[in-house]
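Entry 14. Ran structure prediction on the chain below.
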Amino acid sequence: MRLLALELIPSLLDVRGHIPRFDDFRPTPVAPAPAGAARALAAIIAVLAVLSLAIWATVWLATDLF
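Output, structure tokens:
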């Protein structure tokens, strides 16, 4: 009964035709990741490595000097 009421309201307002059903979406084949994604991942890893090395060097210098 609850589902009927939920279907009845959009049909009375004449918006049911604008709401796509799940059957309208066909699954598409998954495309392989482009080469740009691998380069971006490598750049992120390199930046994180440099930042962690800089933090480690700062802490090492701070503990060595004091």
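The two ends are 75 Å apart (CA to CA). Will compare against last week's run tomorrow.
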